[in-house]
Structure formats: structure tokens, C-alpha cells
Amino acid sequence: MRFTAEHHAFRKVVRDVVEREIVPHVDQWERDGIFPAHELFPKLGEVGLLGLEYDPKWGGQGADHLFTVVACEEIARSGCGGVPMAIGVQTSMATPSLHEFGSDMLKERYLAPAIAGTMVTSIAVTEAGAGSDVRSLRTKAVRDGDEWVINGSKLYITNGTQADWICLLARTSEEGGYRGMSQILVPTDTPGFSVSRKLDKLGQRSSDTAELVFQDMRVPVDHTIGEIGRGFQQQMSQFVIERMFAAYGAVGSCRRALERTRDYLKQREAFGQPLMANQHIAYSMAELSAEIDLLQSHNYACAEAHMNGEDTTRYATVAKLTSGRLTRKVADLCMQYHGGIGYMEETWTSRYFRDSRLGSIGGGADEVMLQVLAKLDGFTA
Ligand SMILES: Cc1cc2nc3c(=O)[nH]c(=O)nc-3n(C[C@H](O)[C@H](O)[C@H](O)COP(=O)(O)OP(=O)(O)OC[C@H]3O[C@@H](n4cnc5c(N)ncnc54)[C@H](O)[C@@H]3O)c2cc1C
After folding, report:
1. pLDDT classification of 177: cutoffs 50, 70, 90
2. Cα-to-centroid distance, 327 and ligand 1 (Å)
3. Domains of the chain
């Protein structure tokens, strides 16, 4: 994978922005249970971080995919999982379908402000009865002339209390299963939309997560993203981008955790020597470092395939599965080697431990990744 001087310079720009605009505020945002997306996102938009690969016509940078890889690795060093996840929703979960399939009218009104950071977005797929099994979702959009009338609810929606618009996956015909779904762009100032609950979570606490309700909500049919009836397929492609974002970020967060633990182990003494002098500890750290390298190499292969226009479903599935598990392992060992202080809320390890647990659940659980992989590799009866 060829990173140029420009990519390296960009890494420094992102690191500086993260250290200036995010890191100093994270503790407060974690306590608040929310971060001010409408304050932070315009700052990220200003340096081009919210539309790296998007068309300059809509304010994007038209940059290559390696800039996204660099950005994900660096944003993940924010000192929490919540804010990077919220940024990921904006860049890699709620907007890819709009950029790829949306009309110019929708892109002008909704994508351009999302890239500038003046509008905050959410992706709404999950429901109380439909998480891993997206095919069973029940939120319905029934056509009435030029409008969709939307009824239903969505659960665990990131940025849900702050979003200006939502990329909603809804059922738009009576056909069952994956047929007859559409992606609809839903402005949240439409009558009939409400946030019914802001949810309290184990981790990712600086990111707001909500339950959303749609009651006889009327949205113009021209707010459909792409083709009516192709929503499931479009969402599956959008999930691939989401999973790549998650895996690229995992490398950044794991690497940072290892660096911080290494520094701690060099200065913490037990039995008359630094803990790092203990070979068992040093080898365990080295082993994790090697595993991060392997994930990063796999990520770069995925990025290269993406840049060559190949289908990256398998790469992204392996990357998401591996990154969720590796982050949990890294978080567990970092806490272990910090001992008691690592278990204290005052130490970064406790937040990292809580935040890392989501990687194997959100955006497709580990078992769902295995289901996809088993199917792709023919491990089926
Ligand atoms: C903090 C947070 C933020 C989120 N943000 C969003 C968001 O912004 N937008 C959105 O749409 N969704 C969001 N989600 C939802 C998330 O994607 C789902 O929680 C996830 O897909 C799992 O769905 P579920 O919770 O319904 O679990 P279920 O589908 O009930 O599955 C429960 C468990 O069963 C196991 N399992 C499931 N299927 C299989 C299988 N086929 N074989 C074997 N085991 C299986 C897995 O271990 C899984 O964790 C978020 C969730 C959280 C916790």
C-alpha cells in the first residue's frame, strides 16, 4: 500500500485536530452523555474530514480512499469510542448511499451540509424486533400521492437526539423479507417525528443513542435515496463501508492503548523492577502488537481492493470480525497490566474497556460476520 508524503502530512493534520478539538473535551462529554455535534462537526468539516472521498461538487475533497484510512486511524485516538463512532455515522454510515444513489436535489440540500458539518445525520436500521435480522424490520412507508406516510420506530440510533436528517430503512411494499424496502431521507423537523428516549449505555457514553418514533410522518417521495424497492441492497453496501470504517479505526485505538500501556509498564515497579522487565508481560504486549500489524495489513489490502473497484464484502467482514475481537483483547490486557488503578474510573483503561465491548455487537455482531463469511466460503449445508 502506497502512502505518499501527502497522506503522511494529512495524518499530522488529523492528529492535530483530534488533539485540539476533541481530546481536551472528552471527559466532560463522557460525563454529559453527549457531545455537541453541531459545534464539533463544522470544525471537522472545515478541514475536509467529513467528505474526504465525496464529489467536490457537494463540498467533498475528491480524495483517494487512503485518506479515509488515515483519518479513521487517527480519529480513533480521540480518547473515547463515542465521538469517533458519531463521526463515523456522519461520514461512513448515513451518507454513502446518498452520495452514491441520491438525486442532485437531495445531495444539494442534505449531503453538502453534512459534509460541511452544519447538518448532523443518523442511520436508522435497527428496531426492537430487528437487529441482526434486518429482513424482519417493520417500519412502514405507505405511498399517498407524492408522499410517504411513515409509521414505526427505530432503536439504538447513534446521533439520534441531534440529527437533522436520518437515512431511514423502511418497508415500502407488502413483499416480505429483503424485498420491498427503501432508503428514505427523513428530515427530523417533520411533524410526526419524535425522540422517545435517550438511552443510557455501558460505554460510548459521549455519543447519544436514541429510540426514534415515526407517527403518520409525511415525507416527499422524492426523498427516497436511489431506487424504490432497492433499500435493502443499498443498505448492505452501506454496511460494507461502515465495517471498513470500524476496522480501520480499531488499529488506531489499539495502537494508542498499547503505547499508553507500554509507557505505564516502564515506570510502574513491582518486585524491585519495572513491570515491563517481566518477560511474560513484554511478550504479551509484543504478541498484541503483531496482531495489530496483521489487522492493519488486512485493512490495507481491503483499502487497495476498494480502490481497484473490487467488491470488498469479504475483506470488510473479516476486518470487522477481527477488529471487534482484537479490541476487546487489547482492552482486557491493558486493564490487567494496570492492576487496580486500571479498574478506576480515573484511568483511561476503564473507559476503553467499556467502549471496546461494542465492537463485537454494533454494526453487525461477530456471529453475523461469521454467518456472512460461512456463506461466502461455502460452509453451508
Ligand atoms: C451503542 C450502539 C449504537 C448503535 N447505533 C446504531 C445506529 O446508529 N443505527 C442502527 O440502525 N443501529 C445501531 N445499533 C444497533 C446494532 O447495530 C445492533 O444492536 C446489532 O446489529 C445487533 O442487533 P440486536 O441488538 O437486535 O441483537 P440481536 O439481533 O437480538 O442478536 C443478539 C445476539 O445474538 C447473536 N446472534 C445474532 N444473530 C445470530 C446468528 N445468525 N447466529 C448466531 N448468533 C447470532 C449475536 O451474538 C448477537 O449479539 C447500535 C447499537 C448500539 C449498542
Report:
1. confident
2. 18
3. 5-120 (1.10.540.10), 122-229 (2.40.110.10), 233-376 (1.20.140.10)
Residue having the nearest C-alpha atom to atom 27 of ligand 1: 131
> What's the predicted TM-score (pTM) here?
0.98
Q: Of 110, 131, 137, 133, which Cα lies nearest the Cα of 224?
A: 110
Protein residue with its CA nearest to atom 29 in ligand 1: 132
The 10s digit of each residue's pLDDT in 86-97 is: 999 999 999 999
Question: What single letter denotes the amino acid at residue 230?
Answer: R
Q: Would you state the cell numbers that stand for residue 103, as one nine-digit string?
A: 438525486
Smallest Cα–Cα separation from 95: which of 207, 229, 284, 234?
Answer: 234
Ligand 1 pocket residues where CB is under 6 Å: 89, 122-126, 131-132, 156-158, 201, 204, 209, 358, 361-365, 367-368, 371
Give the residue among 95, 73, 68 at the shortest CA–CA distance from 84: 73
- The percentage of residues in the chain with a pLDDT greater than 70, rounded to a whole number, is 100
Instruction: Tell me which of 53, 74, 211, 242 is the catalytic residue.
Output: 242
Please give the average per-residue pLDDT across 160-170, as a whole number: 98
